[in-house]
Amino acid sequence: MASRTVVGRTMAGAVLCVALAAFAGAARAEQPPKLPELSPTGADACFGRVYDAAHLKTHPRQKVARIFFFYGHDPVSRPNEEPPANQDTSYNGFLTTTVRGAKKPEWASSWCNKEDPSDKASGIRCGMDCDRTLASLKVDDKGKLLLSGLSPDVYLDPDASESMSKAEYNKQALGSEDDNFKLDPMPVETCKAEFARIDPIDPALGDPLRVRLKPDQPFCFGRDYDDAHLKSHPNQLTQSIRVFRGPIELASFAAGGDAANWPDGADIAVSVTTRQKGKKVTQTYSCQGEADQWRCSASAKMSDFSCDISQKEIFLKRGAGGMMMVANPNNAVAVVDLCSKAAKGKTKSDDKVFRLTPMPQSACAP
């Protein structure tokens, strides 16, 4: 299936709309205005509807069997890697739907504002990254939420209609009657329970990285692949990998970082030794918390880059048993210098996800 969410897209597929997403993220850094139509008291609000078999039988082109809209604090990304001060401002509108026969819901997040702030009767538009619209909202005189303008490809990547075959697009997109929903007010816990079906928290994963890893303490994670592993993965270039914060990264954060906003502004180093003549490449990234992962962009702070590195990113996620997961969906892990000609090509498939274990700091020494 195509990727569905910001988190899912970054970890599993190509990173799209990077510049637009960065701009939108900056815009969302300010607390969006409260919408009393959705929540008169300013508290979290829930709306939903579950369609019975009789309704679905008379609407064969409607795929959605369950739909819920949640307005308020993030009900999905827990434990959260974002700094506590930012966790409530990233998004404020969440939609989840379950289509006929599906075991789990799909979901999308947005930020919602009045279409015309000067007009009290104006409707509400909920926007997404890449200048997309999630839906238009309006509350009727009975307190029901009218949700319209829902695009059939709301859960797909922005270029899905061009990158997919017509048959695959129609299979994955919503149905032609999946719009103009009228949702009933429901208890907040009902929505939270529905969103919990999407990605249940795994207790084995433990605390988020921002809790495990301290702003004033070094860390070292890595993995060395043996001959047997490399033989069974002939396309893998990486022989060993280290992800770490050492004296240089700690000094940089101490000089200009804000511990209250940890991990935003945290510098990390990534060192990779390839199986080709044992060549070692080390490059620096600057991270920020984003939902349940760290999004780390290549940084020129401690490296001399001769090219545009703005879209060279990696993503860190907590793993079971104290592991750290490192994902490279956009050829960013430094198996080669980021400005080399080779970096313009596709990263080998076996070099895209790494499962790293804690190591002594000496294992990450330059």
Roughly how many Å apart are the termini? 41 Å
* Main beta-sheet annotation: 8 strands, antiparallel, barrel
Pattern of helices and strands: HHEHEEEEEEHHEHHEHEHEEEEEE
Rg from Cα:
22 Å
As laid out across the biggest beta sheet, the strand order is 1-2-3-4-5-6-7-8
Total beta strands? 16
State the share of residues found in helices, binned by percent: 10-25%
Tally of DSSP helical segments:
9
Structure classification? alpha+beta
Bin the strand percentage: 25-35%
Mean pLDDT: 82
Basic shape: globular
* Low-confidence blocks of residues: 1-16, 18-29
Question: What do these coordinates show?
Answer:
The protein is an alpha+beta fold and 366 residues long. It has helices spanning 6-12, 18-28, 53-58, 160-163, 166-172, 188-196, 209-212, 227-232, 247-256, and strands at 45-50, 64-71, 93-99, 106-114, 124-128, 132-139, 145-148, 181-186, 219-224, 238-245, 266-274, 280-290, 293-298, 313-318, 324-327, 353-358. The radius of gyration is 22 Å and the shape is globular. The two termini are 41 Å apart.
